[in-house]
Fold:
Amino acid sequence: MTSRSAPQTTPKVLRLADHRFGPDVLAGVEEVLASGQLTLGPRVAEFEHAVAAHVGVAHAVAVSSGTAALHLALVGLGIAPGDEVVLPDFTHPATGNVVLHRGARPVLVDVDPGTYNLDAGALERALTPRTRLVIAVDLFGLPADYPALEKVLGPRGIPILCDAACSLGAELSGESPARRGEAAIFSFHPRKILTTGEGGMIVTDNPGLATRLARLRNHGFERRGEQAVFHELGFNYRMSDVLAVLGSAQLPRLTEIVDRRNYLARLLSARLEPLEGIRAPATPAEGVRPTFQAYVAVLDEEVDRGRFIAALADKSIESTIGTYALHAQPSFREVCGTEPGDVPVSWMLAQRSVALPLHPSLSETDILWIAESVSSALEETT
Ligand SMILES: *Cc1c(COP(=O)(O)O)cnc(C)c1O
Structure:
């Protein structure tokens, strides 16, 4: 009766993210617990070296979250009150919150309706003599259009910070997009490609920046001979060794994980493309390998998104909105002087985008069931 050829009876819930840890990972955790060195120990250093090697950068600094990584990076890059920091309007609030935490001014720029990433033309129009930094987000794991951004920013000498929270394992012309900026940050939140529960990392080729970030994450602590010196105001943004082993254990499988995500995304898109009422995410351009951290489609205006999400939940399929239009959030409206709708493409995407389950634990049958359920949910809610 519970045959997989009759998916209507599928008893399990298809979650947006679903990470599995094997006995090897648990053994690693036990080892750390037995060692007594629970933070800033050898496991954190090991994880940093492994990520740096994977990305192809010289330095990595592990921290307690992707948000902590963004915040530290802004401190390290010298962002201060009065500075303008340009970022896409359609992104996780963390990307903009850290700018506010610095007392700097977020300049929220519209995105491309196909890729959901920063629009280089809109970016160029937003630059002023006070622009100190551009945060490029590889949203949902699709690398931003770095060649176009670099063309605008290179001649002006404005640095890029890559918010690569979603794009560990992505590629742009055979390289990690995280190599494109002065620094890049990753998140290891459970909805990301690789998870430590909570965690983040900053990568950079700049040795001075890396040394300073490593100090700043630990209260500004520096050992000078016998003495501990705190010569700069820092934070406690440390990562625990207990969590670092989780990350190191997943890293060797990263390529395989991202391959599987791309394969499942192609399968799902092929099923969604013929449907009316929904637009599948853009097919990646030549030389672009996304991670599909989230599989985000766009509903037609006529579809009631709330009811669509509820209809999928009735079929045991978890779904949610894509992400937020920052200019419409109360915490940004006052500082930025914006009204909901002022950044039009982002606003449209914030109303109509929907994230569907996509992760390596799904089977082909699960994907077909998702596509079939989307089709019937569209019929019910249009
Ligand atoms: C998840 C995410 C963050 C924040 O990462 P945390 O680890 O949750 O703090 C920042 N930026 C983007 C684009 C994200 O998706």
Remarks:
- The domain at 23-252 is CATH 3.40.640.10 (Aspartate Aminotransferase; domain 2).
